[in-house]
Predict the structure.
Amino acid sequence: MAPRFRYLLGELGVGLRRNLLMTVATVVTVTVSLSLLGAGLLTQRQVDIARQLFFQEVEVSIFLSDDISQQQRQSLERALADHPNVEHVQYESKEQAYAHFQEIFSDNESLLEGVSPKILPASFRVSLEDPQQFAEVAGAFRGRPGVDEVADQGQYLDRFFAILNGLRNGAVAIAVLQLAAASALIFNTIRVTAFARREQTGIMKLVGATNWYIRLPFMLEGIVAGVLGALLAGGLLLLASVTILSGVGQQIQFIPIVGTAEVLGVIPVLLVVGAVIAAVSSFLSLRRFLAV
Amino acid sequence: MIKLDHVTKSYKAGATALADISLEVDKGEFVFLVGASGSGKSTFIRLLIKDEEPDTGDIVIAGKRLVGMKNWKVPALRRELGCVFQDFKLLDNKTVAENVSFALEVIGKPRNTINKTVPEVLKVVGLAHKHAAYPHELSGGEQQRVSIARAFVNHPRILLCDEPTGNLDPTTSVGIMKLLDRINKTGTTVLMATHDQHIVDSMRRRVVELEDGRMVRDQRRGVYGYGA
Ligand SMILES: Nc1ncnc2c1ncn2[C@@H]1O[C@H](COP(=O)(O)OP(=O)(O)OP(=O)(O)O)[C@@H](O)[C@H]1O
Ligand SMILES: [Mg+2]
């Protein structure tokens, strides 16, 4: 084991030094691509956090028309209570709505003056088992007798999430392109290295070294570049988290913003992606050299 | 030890390099493979080390059937064969001893075995005193001895030599032939491709002659040309 290990380290050093410039270019490309990938993954985390938080609180509000009969109201309430996705129903009368309104706009005298309990509608406030299904619940009650309007907060959230999802998709798409470039660079670097050492490789084949034995130092060289890039990308993301993200977190109080903990969670993913892409690119790059 | 059965090989370019070769070599034999340039000698050796595949026919060497052999089994085959070439194929950045150790290291031999065997084999080839020299500090004959040491250090059953004296002067060649003869006497089967009439005539071993890829002669105790 010992001579073999020494051999591996020796080969690795020779390889990395031989084409320093190409190694640097490769590492930089891997860093850029994995930073973007990390950013995409963090955006996804942010979407998940926000989604969970918002949907916990999402309610469907069913506003009742002023001329609703007692019977219509009771049958509505029963239908809501029986709906499989409804967790909880609460009736809010015109008076309660007014009290609520007063509370919310207590510092806006002029607005309060123009409003009386009469013009605010009574409503059912419906919380859902699965808040993601709000559209289905809202649709089921829209247009029923006695129902004036069904409002769900989900409509607005959807737009918000569409923006975040767009950002994430953009980051991931650029990351994929960059990763393709990175893997091409690794492919090339390894091929150049293998070509430079073709004499040695030829002798190794001649005396019966196994393909894996020949391959390993080359692949290790690729993997070192991949892992180095992943570590640098992780460093960049951490830097972004303690500077930009923590600032954003202080500005936006109403939802938690992803931070160092999430970045630390993403780094292992970047390491694995970096190492695997490097290993696969190096492996493919060596195929021609190792054809028996 | 080596058996070819109706072996044919042509390269993509079209010309037939070997045509319908059938030959058997027993354990411990010494065989010269002679023929004009382009007659197919190197191709013959490349087929035996599975560097090339025959188009048709069957090859068995060191008890292993080469046709249809899986790629991952080739290293095990090559560990049973030693190869020596006209151009030595030494690594310039390694010393004599390192060049020989390298062959054992890369097949995973333990360090203490390597430390024991390499000086021994360098003594056999008469280069113990030059173990720390680099290839460019050696004469052609010495370089070829290193290459033979490397081929022999793992005690292969068969030694395949493609014009090992091709780059050497006659006197040096005689030394190399004496070495190959000694290796042969240890029971190693030796197959040597050569143009060197003087060597073939003086050794009086089995001679197989190729002409345009066909086997035109197989003679016990032969000489380079026809007759005798
Ligand atoms: N890789 C190759 N691709 C195409 N043709 C080849 C290849 N190698 C050899 N040949 C052809 O096959 C034939 C036999 O070549 P080979 O090298 O076996 O001859 P040889 O007897 O070793 O010659 P020499 O004595 O010059 O070394 C020649 O016609 C040669 O041109
Ligand atoms: Mg030849």
Summary: The mean pLDDT of chain B is 93. The two ends of chain B are 27 Å apart (CA to CA). The helical segments of chain B are 41-48, 74-78, 96-105, 111-124, 140-152, 170-185, 197-203. Residues B 11, 13, 15, 17, 35, 37-43 surround adenosine-5'-triphosphate (ligand 1) (CB under 6 Å).
